[in-house]
Design brief:
Blueprint (H helix, E strand, L loop, with lengths): L4 H16 L6 H8 L3 H7 L3 H25 L4 H18 L1 H19 L5 H24 L8 H17 L1 H8 L6 H19 L5 H4 L4
Helix pairs in contact: 1-2, 1-4, 1-6, 4-5, 4-6, 4-7, 5-6, 5-7, 5-8, 5-10, 6-8, 7-8
Length: about 220
């Protein structure tokens, strides 16, 4: 089915915001690349900040669709962490723009917030809620004795760095690894590496081996 004008705009804007950031993209170029007039673009998104928020919301919705079922599934904390890490990496690997947009949003939040676009607070709340779910899962694992008594918030920071930064690293990451970031083999390897880091590094030595599912 032919994508709607709104979807065309979001696709184009996502690619450009990921490449050049909020400040580096103009509304006119988005309209031209989407094959639309500026009036049509402004009908859907009256300001660049509102367009940016819509792009980030779309990205978060994709991540939620992958990750929330894994976080809410039954099973031990270790098993749920294993599944949630897989789901997060799948979400980041599905669209090469996703990780770079998330990384840029951390350093551009002041510029976007200054424009006070509607919907920004709701998107930020969804991001914080997703991070809080991961943090709560790690805390539950510590409380159950499945994980070592570590700071769950620090562990989540490590997870974000090991996943979002990795897929946002572009040519630098590919040069460091000596190969593509997004090939099926590279994505599978990143899953193994992150879970080895988290589960071997965090798991209680008394309970982890039997709880950790096979790779």
């Amino acid at each position: 089915m032919e994508p709607s004008s709104r979807e065309k705009i979001l696709e184009v804007a996502e690619a450009r915001f990921a490449q050049r950031g909020f400040a580096g993209v103009g509304m006119r170029e988005v309209a031209l690349a989407a094959g639309l007039g500026k009036s049509s673009l402004f009908h859907h998104f009256p300001t660049k900040a509102e367009l940016y928020v819509a792009v980030i919301e779309r990205v978060i919705a994709r991540i939620e669709a992958h990750v929330l079922p894994a976080l809410g599934a039954a099973g031990s904390a270790v098993l749920r962490i294993d599944r949630a890490v897989d789901a997060l990496i799948d979400a980041l690997a599905e669209h090469p723009t996703t990780a770079r947009l998330l990384l840029r949003s951390l350093v551009e939040e002041d510029a976007v917030a200054a424009a006070e676009p509607p919907g920004l607070a709701a998107v930020e709340a969804r991001i914080h809620a997703l991070v809080a779910r991961f943090t709560a899962l790690l805390s539950a694992g510590v409380g159950a004795g499945e994980l070592r008594p570590v700071c769950a918030a620090d562990a989540v920071q490590t997870l974000i760095g090991a996943t979002v930064y990795h897929f946002a690293s572009g040519e630098f990451g590919e040069a460091l690894l000596g190969g593509a970031l997004y090939s099926a083999e590279a994505v599978a390897r990143r899953k193994r590496e992150v879970k080895e880091l988290l589960l071997h590094g965090l798991t209680s030595p008394l309970s982890a081996p039997k709880e950790r599912p096979p790779s």
